[in-house]
Design a protein that fits this description.
The protein has 2 domains: 63 residues, no CATH class; 203 residues, no CATH class. The protein contains 9 helices and 9 strands. The strands form 3 sheets. Strands 3-2-6-7 form a 4-stranded mixed sheet, with no helix packed on it. It binds zinc ion.
Length: 275
């Protein structure tokens, strides 16, 4: 899996030219045809011009597309620019993203686990976009189960597209555990409605407290798991699938998460030393 077709190697250029021509001529014929389109000669000349234009634009377009696949450095610059627009929260994402890349760029058990779904999980992760959901849920919801025990559902931390692949987006909840350590609890009545506030609770990702590097790395690895299909789909529900997925991530990546969380990521170290 290497995502969208524009990432195909240069060896398939011929196929791309043919497709590109097809698209261009389709676009022309379904578009603005001159009303006096009757004379065969005119039609022939124009069609030749269209085909020539299509071939020319493809010849220009396809090789530059193959060559314009961003290098890791260009990808870093693009992400740095995107994240700087998100202010302080963008800085937090940049640090956690660098720490995840430090994990995935080495041949450890965590990387090997992700490679069961994609040969180069670091490349996919490097290509991802990040967005903030400012109006996301912030409450922890509490409810009694049938045996009288208390269940809690924390606000979602992040979301992504299952099998979204390279260049897809991780959406982070600005009010969730990626950025926050605590949250107000809302108790639901047994019917699951009529919430009332009931104190404050620590937000956690597995055993990690919210707004810690360990939690942030785990959240990003979890989303990468969806993006390359290493984890099954889950939803913001009470069924516990999301927690089971996080446990699965940590079963394979916990050993790498702790040291990565303590280190300043190498991408940021490089940028700082270049300043
Ligand atoms: Zn999930």
């Amino acid at each position: 899996m290497n995502g969208p077709s524009e990432l195909r190697p240069a060896g398939t250029t011929g196929v791309d030219v043919a497709r590109c021509m097809g698209r261009n001529s389709d676009a022309k014929t379904s578009g603005n045809l001159p009303t006096g389109w009757r004379k065969r000669h005119q039609s022939f000349v124009l069609r030749r011009r269209f085909i020539a234009a299509a071939v020319f634009s493809c010849v220009l377009f396809v090789p530059s597309r193959s060559h314009s696949q961003p290098t890791p450095n260009q990808e870093e610059e693009r992400v740095a620019l995107e994240l700087s627009a998100l202010g302080k929260q963008g800085d937090t994402i940049a640090r956690a993203r660098g720490q995840v890349l430090d994990i995935l760029q080495h041949g450890n058990a965590c990387t090997v686990w992700f490679q069961e779904s994609d040969p180069d999980p670091a490349e996919v992760f490097r290509s991802l976009h990040f967005e903030l959901e400012m109006g996301g849920p912030s409450y922890v919801y509490g409810m009694r189960d049938h045996e009288g025990g208390l269940l809690f559902k924390h606000p979602w931390a992040a979301s992504s597209t299952q099998y979204g692949g390279s260049h897809s987006t991780i959406l982070l909840n600005a009010n969730g555990p990626f950025f926050n350590r605590t949250s107000v609890v809302m108790q639901l009545d047994p019917t699951g409605r009529l919430a009332r506030p009931d104190g404050i609770r620590l937000l956690t990702i597995s055993s990690y407290k919210g707004n810690t590097p360990e939690a942030q790395i785990t959240i990003l690895l979890h989303e990468l798991g969806h993006i390359i299909g290493r984890l099954p789909e889950d939803h913001d529900s009470w069924d516990g699938q999301s927690s089971r997925n996080t446990s699965d991530v940590l079963r394979h990546c916990k050993t790498e998460t702790r040291p990565a969380a303590r280190n300043s990521p190498s991408s940021i170290r490089v940028r700082n030393s270049a300043d």
